[in-house]
Amino acid sequence: MNQVGGLKAINIRGNAYVQVHTKVAAFNRLFPNGRIESEIIGDPANHVFIRSKVTPNVEHPERYFIGHSQAKWVGNINGAAALENAETSAVGRALSMLGIGIEDGMCSAEEL
Fold this sequence. Notes:
The protein contains two helices and six strands, in the order βββαβββα. By secondary structure, the protein is of the alpha+beta class.
């Protein structure tokens, strides 16, 4: 089993990748006073844009990390779940900006 920063990682094309659910669990454990928020940007009828904001401590809201993602309603997976996939990616990127689950880069599993 691979690890990145003490977190379980999977191997994708020779790269160690920490899945978003693992990053979220680590965030909740490390930052019990934190918050993860996501919002849809624009009209998601054909193309979904998501902005996620991670605040490690809600008592200090001036320190936060942002992640963005997009997805189209096409294909086997995104055809049914573009919104959910875009949100998961945006949350993962925001958590990566905070430094959770990164070692060599901040790309998504799909980008690998």
